[in-house]
Every structure is written in structure tokens, then in C-alpha cells.
Amino acid sequence: MEDTPDTCRIYCNSCKQHTHHKLALSHAYDHRTEEESSEVYGQFRLWFCAGCDACTMEDYCTADYMFSQVGDGEFSQEYASTYHPKPAIGFRPDKRFHKLPPKLKKLYDEVIRAHNDKLHLLCSAGLRGLIEGICADKNISGGNLEKKIDGMTAVLPAHIVENLHGFRFIGNDAVHELEAPTEFELTLALDVIEDVVNFLYGLDYKVSLLEKLKGKETRVKAKGGAGTDKS
């Protein structure tokens, strides 16, 4: 086992960048037995950020089969690190849509979690399911998803519907051919679906809230004006 360093650079979720971390403590473990040599062994390491003191736990491990050839007859042991909490690099926060039905909200939240966990196949399949769920909620029918998306012109601007057709093919490839879309494609698809959800379930709430605020402001001005006239 390699010697444990006193410091290292790790991504800090609090500082939102890679920072110097100092070792607080470490604990070695070995799950190998005489009968089974393929089990992992390594160290649990607790690091704290030198900038903000936030802690990160590292599982630094290897196994007898984890090695690579570095020369003629020479091999190097390979190690893997898993961090807890997970580094939030490329992390996409979930948004809040006040009028989104609970079932659709649950599916949307799971799609975001799948994206953040780099589960691209599940994320793309979930996005496809979210479109199906929105169509069902808006009573939009069709023999397949393409026809349902065409029917969404009744509730969505034409350019958004056009973008959704590109999203449909990402879902088909992922579900039927087990072909995962790229990170860039998923990001675009998430942008589009969040625009759809915001348009259908967020804007009405915001407009109604704005109208309430305007009405309150008008009533306050009216009371103030009446008081001025009285004096």
C-alpha cells in the first residue's frame, strides 16, 4: 500500500473549486481472504479543506487484479478513489415549478439525479417518460410519441415543439438501442424540457403572483392617496 500523503488537492463542494486539503485521519482495511483474493483493500481517508474546513471522505482502494503493464514484465498497481460527498462538478440543480403535478415532479427530480450521477441511459429514458407524462396531463393523445409531440402545438409555441422532436430521437436511441447520449446532448435536452415545464407549469403561477403583487400595490397607493386628500 502506498504511503498516505499529508495534503492533496480535492474538489471542495463548499468552495466550488479544487482546493488544498489536509489529512485528518486514515484507516486501513483489507477484505481479502485466503480463499478469495479479488476483494478490495485500501484506506478510508478523511480530508478537510484548507480554505473552509469542510470535510470529504475518500475511499482509496485497489484489488489484486487492478494493475497495468508499464514495461516488459513490469506491472503497476492501480488505485481508485471514491469521494463522499460526491464532487459536485457539473452538478445540475433541480428547479422548482409550483404547479407541476406530484407524479411529474417526482419523475423530474429522478431525471436530475440520474444526470448528476452520470447515469445517461436512465436520464434519457426518464426525459422521454417525462414528455409522455406531460402529454397525458394535458390530454394530448397520439399513436406514438412523435404524434403526441405534434399535438403539443395546442399548448406550446411551435419552436419549442420543433426542439422536442430532436429530443424524441435521443430517447428512442437510448431506450431501444441502449445507446447513451452524450453529456452535451443531455444538457440540451434538459434545457428544453425545463423550458417546457416552466412554460406549462411555472409561468401561470408567476403571472398570477405578479398580478397579486400589483393589486396589493394599487390598494396601498389608494389608501395613501385617500389619506392625503383627507389631510
Enumerate the spans where pLDDT stays under 50 for 5 or more consecutive residues.
Answer: 227-231
Main β sheet profile: 5 strands, antiparallel
What is the N-to-C succession of helices and strands? EEEEEEEHHHHHH
Query: How many E strands?
Result: 7
Beta-strand proportion: 15-25%
Neighbour order of strands in the largest sheet: 1-2-3-4-7
Average pLDDT for all residues: 84
- Tally of separate helices: 6
Describe the structure.
With 231 residues, the protein is of the alpha+beta class. The protein has two domains: 7-84, no CATH class; 102-207, no CATH class. The chain contains six helices and seven strands. The strands form two sheets. Strands 1-2-3-4-7 form a five-stranded antiparallel β-sheet, with no helix packed on it. Strand 5 and strand 6 (74-77) form a beta hairpin. Helix 1 packs antiparallel against helix 2 (120-137) and helix 2 (120-137) packs parallel to helix 5. Residues 227-231 have low confidence and may be disordered.
Provide a concise account of the structure shown.
This protein is an alpha+beta fold and 231 residues long. Helix content is 46%, strand content 22%. The N and C termini lie far apart (86 Å).
Attribute tags:
disordered C terminus; five-stranded antiparallel sheet; elongated; 231 residues; alpha+beta; 2 domains
Note the topology.
Blueprint: E1 7-12, E2 17-30, E3 41-49, E4 55-62, E5 67-71, E6 74-77, E7 80-84, H1 102-116, H2 120-137, H3 145-151, H4 158-177, H5 183-201, H6 203-230
Antiparallel strand pairs: 1-2, 2-3, 3-4, 4-7, 5-6
Helix pairs in contact: 1-2, 2-4, 2-5, 3-4, 4-5
